[in-house]
Specification:
Blueprint: E1 12-14, E2 17-19, E3 26-30, E4 37-42, H1 46-63, H2 68-84, H3 86-97, H4 101-118, H5 121-124, E5 128-134, E6 137-145, E7 148-152, H6 160-171, E8 175-179, H7 186-198, E9 205-207, H8 212-220, E10 224-230, H9 233-245, E11 249-253, E12 258-262, H10 268-280, E13 290-296, H11 303-311, H12 330-345, E14 349-352, E15 371-374, H13 381-384, E16 391-397, H14 400-409, E17 412-413, E18 416-419, H15 423-432, E19 438-440, E20 456-457, E21 460-461, H16 468-474, E22 476-484
Parallel strand pairs: 7-8, 7-10, 8-9, 10-11, 12-13, 12-18, 13-16, 15-16, 18-19
Antiparallel strand pairs: 1-2, 3-4, 5-6, 6-22, 11-21, 14-15, 17-20
Helix pairs in contact: 2-4, 2-7, 3-4, 3-7, 4-6, 8-9, 10-11
Family: Belongs to the aldehyde dehydrogenase family.
Enzyme class: oxidoreductase
Domain Aldehyde dehydrogenase: 18-481
């Protein structure tokens, strides 16, 4: 491809310098509302990946010895810079990804919360100490950084998810190689620029761009010790298997099919409002979107009111701050519309059809309007697959037990919710549901960074989640030291060949 002089190229970050890739393979970054080419992103070469990892490996030698206070102060400065540039970051994100300006600010803000948490690293990276575990013997543990770590991030949260990864990895003393989504890397790169401005030293944070070849290079590189991934189940499973076989520590947050149970005793107005927002916000392009509502008993009579709320949502370009923006690409739009067609063919009732939406002045946009199916059952493509678009599937159940059984039979376990005013029902739900993140009258139960993202089952590979206390364990190695200091006068001078009993 011959590069246009009018379209900027996205740079690599290697050893503190933004450099032009020497690759011959480039991809367009396209505004999903207009099809305007915003920039071109390189598919980095193997040599460029190697250079980024080498820079990180060299920087680790000094960074791991940097005091906790010095690391924390960088992230205090970084969170201030993100706040100062919030509007700018949101505008970039909206242009390349499509989500509304308000939602884009939310994307940045949820990442900012993790940066704030990284500034508390002094309290998070504490070890343990026990005195006199045996006669004159003390034992203590320390949490030491691993070395070079890497992150592979998806298109749907190009600010939040990179901020889930590199701040905590770097705050715990590691160095990092980030591979953003090639579909929308611009806001990620602006965040990286601000991170350098905050004081992250050369080589501590590096960025490479690319597709499968770069992902495989990261999985295979001997000097990368740990990989964090967020994205599709197909790619996540590949990353987990390939990187694990290469001896790396890996965490993969993957696909989902999140259900909400709506009991007839729920506050109808609040439940329908929250369900509508959680299903259609971000055009359904959230791994935590509520994509299936299980209407229990008389709650199935609320479908007309739910449809009316969805119909009232405004579809348009993200810069105009509508309710629903475009999906990320033409390919994504075609896939969503294909699944809607399959839903009709397989017998689900199409209560609201969002296909063919035209927005005046943005006729080339990748718009799909809110879509609702009722009568959805397992075995239908719209139920079994993660649609990743503004499509809500409605199923029916006679009892709470039946609804719980339906959810637990689904292989995914990212998030779930229940809408009810019954404490007994809510307690039963939270105890019996086999899903890692549970909301009670909370539609998208993503925990704040004091906790950890705890998706489960087929939605996650690896034992430890991103951010929070769990990720400190992920990015560190626990080293346990057992010590005894002898008093020469008290030494018996005898050789002991048995296991000590005291």
């Amino acid at each position: 491809m011959t590069l246009s002089t009018t379209v900027p190229t996205i740079k690599l970050l290697i050893n503190g310098e933004f450099v032009e890739s020497q690759t011959s393979v480039w991809r367009d970054v396209v505004n999903p509302a207009t099809q305007e080419v915003l920039a071109r992103v390189p598919m980095a070469t193997q040599a460029e990946v190697d250079a980024a990892v080498a820079a990180a490996k060299t920087a680790f030698k000094s960074w791991k010895k940097t005091s906790i206070g010095s690391r924390a102060r960088i992230f205090l400065k970084y969170q201030q810079l993100i706040r100062e540039h919030m509007k700018e970051l949101a505008a970039i994100l909206t242009a390349e990804q499509g989500k509304t300006l308000a939602d884009a600010e939310g994307d940045v803000f949820r990442g900012l919360e993790v940066v704030e948490h990284a500034a508390s690293i002094g309290n998070l990276q504490l070890g343990e100490y026990a005195e006199n575990v045996a006669s004159g013997v003390d034992t203590y543990s320390v949490l030491q950084p691993l070395g070079v770590c890497a992150g592979i991030t998806p298109f749907n949260f190009p600010a939040m998810i990179p901020l889930w990864m590199f701040p905590m990895a770097i705050a715990t003393g590691n160095t990092f190689v980030l591979k953003p989504s090639e579909q929308d890397p611009m806001v990620t790169m602006r965040l990286v620029e601000l991170a350098l401005e905050a004081g992250i030293p050369a080589g501590v944070l590096n960025v490479v761009h690319g597709g499968p070849d770069v992902v495989n290079a990261i999985c295979d590189h001997a000097d990368i010790k740990a990989i964090s991934f967020v994205g599709s189940s197909k790619v996540g499973t590949h990353v987990y298997n390939r990187a694990s076989l290469n001896g790396k520590r890996v965490q993969c947050m993957m696909g989902a099919k999140n259900h909400a149970i709506v009991l007839p005793d729920a506050n109808k107005e609040q439940a329908l409002n929250q369900l509508t927002g959680a299903a259609f916000g971000a055009a359904g392009q959230r791994c935590m979107a509520l994509t299936v509502a299980v209407l229990v008993g008389e709650a199935k009579n609320w479908i007309p009111e739910l449809v009316a709320k969805a119909k009232a949502l405004r579809v348009g370009p993200g810069k105009d701050n509508p309710d629903v923006g475009p999906v990320v690409s033409c390919t994504a739009r075609d896939r969503v519309e294909s699944l809607i067609a399959q839903g009709v063919e397989q017998g689900a009732k199409l209560e609201l059809d969002g296909r063919g939406v035209k927005v005046p002045g943005f006729e080339q946009g990748n718009f799909v309007g809110p879509t609702i199916f009722s009568g959805v059952k397992p075995g239908m493509a719209i139920y079994d697959q993660e649609i990743f678009g503004p499509v809500l599937c409605l199923s029916a159940a006679d009892t709470l037990d039946e609804a719980i059984e339906l959810i637990n039979a689904n292989p995914n376990g990212n998030g779930t919710a229940i809408f009810t005013q019954s404490g007994a029902a809510a307690r039963k739900f939270q105890e019996e549901i086999d899903v890692g993140q549970v909301g009670i009258n909370v539609p998208i139960p993503v925990p704040v960074p004091l906790f950890s993202f705890t998706g489960s089952r087929a939605s996650k590979l690896g034992d430890l989640g991103p951010y929070g206390k769990q990720v400190v364990l992920f990015y560190t190695q626990t080293k346990t030291v057992t010590s005894r200091w002898f008093d020469d006068a008290a030494s018996s001078g005898k050789v002991n060949t048995t296991i000590s009993l005291n």
